[in-house]
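Review form for a predicted model. The reviewer records the input and the model, then writes brief findings.
Reviewer: anonymous (R2)
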Amino acid sequence: MSGSPRLNADWFDGRSGRAQPVEVWLDGTTLHFVVDAASQHSVPLAGLVWPERQRHGQRQILLPGGGLLSFSDPVAFDAWAQASGRGESAVVRWQQSWRLALLSLLLLVAGLAAGYRWGLPWAVDRTVDALPVAAEQRLGEHLLRSFDKDWLQPSELKHDEQQAWRQRWAQALQRAREAGGLPLPERFEIHIRDGGKALGPNAFALPGGDIVITDALLALLKDEPDAVMTVLAHE
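Model under review:
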């Protein structure tokens, strides 16, 4: 014990605000501090909250029962802790190095970007795969009713024109199924709507096999039905 480095500190017993000067040292797995020759205290290291190294400010060791040891000289405390075998953890060393902190930030940004680029689509695909077909269709129908109420209008195309587009789509699906390749859902339904200036030439898919295409897109590609089929297939 006599060879253990010692350091002066202020002891607050947790019952009063009065600081008592003490001398502190470590011995194996125990911290000792002495107020005077007749008053020595010993506390297992496992029961302490040890301070992390910072660039400024005093160090405080929290004791069981609400007391604490306060060290006003942080440089002296760090040297004493190091000499007593209380080296810094890897986390503290990481925090104190700007290079490692920058590396952590770069890794975090890269992880977030990768999660957004690959993780989110993967999670969405798994969620959709696990969703029952009937529930998916109900969700699509609910969304379509909501869109029709808020920002879609009935199509201005004649009924025969709408039916002609639906027939072309049904034929394209039939050819795709006969050709094989990627599996296709059993249900696809085309909904032709007037999207106004807000949507313009557009198309989008809803859960359950519902696909909305606007009058403006059909007017834009009226002489290119294959292009319309390509847009629908993409959705």
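Findings: Strands lie at 6-12, 20-27, 30-36, 39-44, 59-62, 68-71, 153-154, 189-194, 203-206, 210-214.
Further findings: Residues 98-130 form the longest helix (33 residues).
Recommendation: see findings above.
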